[in-house]
Design goal:
This is Purine nucleoside phosphorylase. GO terms for molecular function: copper ion binding; hydrolase activity; S-methyl-5-thioadenosine phosphorylase activity. It holds the Pfam family Cu-oxidase_4. The protein is α+β, with helices and mostly antiparallel strands. It has a single domain, classed as CNF1/YfiH-like putative cysteine hydrolases (4-Layer Sandwich), CATH 3.60.140.10. The chain is about 25% helix and about 30% strand. The chain is built from 5 helices and 9 strands; from the N terminus they run βββααββαββαβαβ. The strands form 3 sheets. The chain has a 4-stranded mixed β-sheet. A 3-stranded antiparallel β-sheet has the order 5-7-6. A two-stranded antiparallel ribbon has the order 1-9. β6 and β7 (about 90-95) form a beta hairpin. α2 (about 35-50) runs parallel beside α4 (about 95-105). The protein starts with a strand and ends with a strand.
Amino acid sequence: VVLAIQVADCLPIFLIAPNVSAIGLVHAGWRGTVAGIAGEAVRKLKEDFGVDPGSLSCFIGPSIHTCCYTVGREVMDKFQTDHLTENGPNRYNLDLISANSAQLSEAGVAAEKITVDKRCTYCSESGLHSYRRHGDRAGRNVCFLNLKWV
């Protein structure tokens, strides 16, 4: 089984259940984050495959970081203030990583089992694609997760 998603600033969230043959791969932009997609993925793995959330290993891949993710009031109003930093009148920097990490933790994933890639897709010089940086001509970062049957 191979899962794949495309992102260009949104968070790719990899979920791996080491003791069960189950994996998950989530595309979490601000709308998915508001909808609770990271926590919902954990709940689905538990419901469908009997995964103990405490046994999950999660990896948040390269994505836009707080330093570069400025949003207006229309997005800001949908988030708790602990995921926002004021950046001028009616402008805020949104921390999608902390918001999704909180969802994973609330769903039962141990904090020490959540790993975050430190590269920001917007300001990193690593050749990652960024919709915010390049607009409609931006490429996509393709993420794969493979389940090897044992």
